[in-house]
Amino acid sequence: MNRRLTQRGRERRQQLMSYAITRFAENGYHPTSVAEIVHGLGVGKGVFYWYFASKEELFLEILRDAQRQLRRRQEAAIADEPDPVRRIELGIRASIAWIDENRDVVKLLQFAATEERFAPVLRRGQDVAVADTARHVKEGIVEGRIRDLDPFVLSHAVLGVAGHLAREFVHERSQSVDDVAEAAVAFCLGGLMGSPPD
User: Fold this and answer.
1) Helix (H, G, I), strand (E, B), or coil: what is residue 44?
2) N or C terminus of the chain: which is more exposed, having fewer CB within 10 Å?
3) Which of 24-55 are b and which e, b meaning 16 or more Cβ less than 10 Å from the residue's Cβ?
4) Among residues 38, 65, 63, which one has the least CA distance to residue 49?
């Protein structure tokens, strides 16, 4: 639903999303109702439907917003870094830190991956992330610092390793963000830059 919102309207919309994230993460998507969300915030259903056409639209917007936030975090970490390999490292570290700081959202992303109706939004987000990473990988290949392999395969590998390690060891096992990031960076950069086996 595209509405021009005032500052107050944007804040109210964000309140609905933030509260819904907590409820969905605690109770699950299916058991959580619009009535529960509005009751918890002390607003009427009309307020909810002013901003979102349905619970599904709300959830989809939470997923899109999470992907935008992660991308902004990565872009801020990379900033004006000229070295493509260093940009990949900073992006990995920023991603793992974001996953640690957004545990409820990570639960929702994991749930969304199990539901076909949310797949297109997740796919679009993944495509953007791969394209962003591939840009740095291609620069590293041109500079002769990264092995001359398919940059999109390498980008999927970097994102897959970083995401899996963050979810498994930071999110699930509460291990040190810095230690997990260090392992992810060592593994990914070693794979990107290392010599192929004889």
Assistant:
1) coil
2) C
3) bbeeebeebebeebbeebebeeebbebbbeeb
4) 38
d(CA 147, CA 126): 23
Q: What is the pTM assigned to this prediction?
A: 0.89
Q: Note the helical H segments in the chain.
A: 7-27, 34-41, 45-51, 55-78, 84-101, 103-112, 119-142, 151-165, 177-193
Q: What integer pLDDT is reported at residue 198 of this predicted model?
A: 43
Q: How high is the pLDDT of residue 7?
A: 81
Q: Residue 31: which residues within 8 A CB-CB, separation 6 or more?
A: none
CB 123 within 8 A of CB 106: no
Proportion of the chain above pLDDT 90, given as a percent: 90
| CA dihedral sign, ordered 10, 129, 165, 76 | negative
Q: pLDDT tens-digit profile of 163-195?
A: 999 999 998 899 999 999 999 999 999 999 986
Q: Tell the burial category of 174 from Cβ atoms under 10 Å away from its Cβ (0-12, 13-18, 19+).
A: exposed
d(CA 189, CA 24): 36
